[in-house]
Amino acid sequence: MASAAVVDAGDAPEPTVRNLLDQESLKWVFVGGKGGVGKTTCSSILSVLLASVRQSVLVISTDPAHNLSDAFQQRFTKFPTLVRGFTNLYAMEIDPKVENDDLSNEGMEGFLSELTNAIPGVDEAMSFAEMLKLVQTMDYSVVVFDTAPTGHTLRLLQFPATLEKGLEKMMELKNRFGGLLNQASRLFGLGDELNEDAMLGRLEGMKDVIEQVNRQFKDPDLTTFVCVCIPEFLSLYETERLVQELAKFEIDSHNIIINQVIFDEEPVESKLLKARVKMQQKYIDQFHMLYDDFNITKLPLLSEEVCGVQALQNFSKHFLTPYKSALKRGTVEELEERISILKSALQEAESELDRVKKGKQTA
After folding, report:
1. Bridge partners, 90 (sequence order)
2. Rounded CA gap, 229 and 111, in Å?
3. Domain with 255 in it
4. What is the pTM of this model?
5. Residue at 11 is within a domain
6. Is position 192 annotated as part of the catalytic site?
């Protein structure tokens, strides 16, 4: 892959996303992975980081369960809105099912429903094409897609083929029904704009847009896909499936973000925590083994959600500098911290015991 980091023997790519900021030719950045791994947080932070080096950035959520509004703590719609605190970062949320409403005006409903039932995903493809048309007229220097879970993302990549099928089906329907639809349109006084020729033209136009964009998607200088995952078996499996599919669609991918990593830095001993760290390490090792030519960024599991511009900016440092544990096991500092915590816990337990004893005596 042209833009993937070159790996020398024994020299792994940098474990950060800095390569995405350095690649000035990038136009489209997809962020995807299994549900619940933190894609929205990662795409939000990537867009914040890109806004610091690019002229204008648009982050788009194509996930029906929109979380961009939660991440930035600001309401977004299907139109690009400037993110508070920025002069060059915009966000929008599109819902393919809702977006399709303005395609299926009354005179076309029967025609469209037969078309969309015949080709699953054609309604999404049409709405995606409309959205891309809109984005292209706005001329952002880079667009970040916060995609829905993996299955939906893969459908998105198949849209050109889906629209091809749609056009074939449209021609078939046109041949079958002849001028019936035109007569019905005139009968109900709906005008010529609702005939199947207009619809066919619109679909053709969308197919042109999607094919043009698809050519850009296959250009590693313009497009890359960032896989977000967590260090667990199912997420590893899903990431592998995603990477294979991306290769099949000739879409560049050389960044993996492993989210929710537990760094063993708590001075208090915990069997549960130790077991979890050990399990995660096993899968992290597998990620490194499978994707030794990828930039693999590890992000720490936090005790609170990353919400709001300030929190996103604070957390963004871990995308550019590998995270290091605050305390190292076996050091004087770690042992002193552990003794201090144990003394404090002992004092609390003794106070609790005194209260319980006094309570029994008064009873």
Report:
1. 58, 82
2. 41
3. 17-327
4. 0.76
5. no
6. no
